[in-house]
Amino acid sequence: MIKIAVCGALGKMGQEVCQAVTDCPETELIAKIDIASDHMYHTIEEAHRVEDIDVLIDFTQPKSIYENALYCLNNGIKIVIGTTGLTDEQIAELKRLSEENNTGCLIAPNFSTGAVLMMMFAQQAAKYFDNAEIIELHHNQKKDAPSGTAIKTALMMSEAKETFKKGNCAETETIKGSRGGTSYSDIQIHSVRMPGYIASQEVIFGSSGQIFKIRHDSMDRKCYMDGILLAVKHVAEKNDFTYGLENIL
């Protein structure tokens, strides 16, 4: 039985994760952690003093995830990270600590198998198109932009070529930010924040005479649970560092 702590247990994702861990016959929910509750542990350190945690699942906020991960990796707690907002430098440091301390760490911008397949298909399509942009759409309570999924998608696509702006004219933004943000290999990412969405992403490829789109929509947070449990079982069994669920599918 894998002993699980969930950090950010009161959030919408955290509540779904707690239920999924409780329902899974291979996992045991031993600690709920949320700074906003008077009836749960407030910090990972507080829970760790009392509970023997095998794996911590973190769905907190971008401002706290890095410090949470540092604590876990320096104290022998394996961690599955679903919170986005980590920088490339922070991810590199967590990779170093995971390997140095022989403590498993899996970071996934998205745990939906459909979203991961979208990213993998986009990576394949990138070989055949010279122009591409990404539009990601999330609920209006998401604090970081662009989404971790969009950033990871762009990173995967960038392995195919140095730029996805072939033939573009020189541009002038009459309203700053109109063209979105420029990411890896000059891929423009556009972020939409709107009530009604959970998480959606569209990758648009273009060439002379054709447009090719790959899109994924999440309708319910339950779609992430199978991927999260898969990640938990992976880090419980192995002590490696993994960035992206596609690496263990």
Report on this structure.
It is a single chain. With 249 residues, this protein is α/β, with parallel strands linked by helices. The chain folds into two domains: 2-107 and 221-247, Rossmann fold (3-Layer(aba) Sandwich), CATH 3.40.50.720; 113-218, Dihydrodipicolinate Reductase, domain 2 (2-Layer Sandwich), CATH 3.30.360. 33% of the residues lie in helices and 24% in strands. It has helices at 12-23, 44-50, 62-74, 88-101, 113-125, 148-158, 225-237, and strands at residues 2-7, 27-33, 55-58, 78-81, 105-107, 131-138, 181-182, 188-193, 199-207, 210-218, 241-243. Helix 1 crosses helix 7 and helix 3 (62-74) runs parallel beside helix 4 (88-101). It is elongated. The two termini are 22 Å apart. 40% of the residues are buried.
Helix content: 25-40%
CATH architecture of the largest domain: 3-Layer(aba) Sandwich
Q: What is the structural class?
A: alpha/beta
Radius of gyration: 19 Å
Number of domains: 2
Main sheet: which strands, in order across?
2-1-3-4-5-11
Short summary:
The protein is of the alpha/beta class. The chain folds into two domains: 2-107 and 221-247, 3-Layer(aba) Sandwich (Rossmann fold); 113-218, 2-Layer Sandwich (Dihydrodipicolinate Reductase, domain 2), CATH 3.30.360.10. It contains seven helices and eleven strands.
Features:
249 residues, alpha/beta, Rossmann fold, Dihydrodipicolinate Reductase, domain 2, 2 domains, 24% strand, elongated
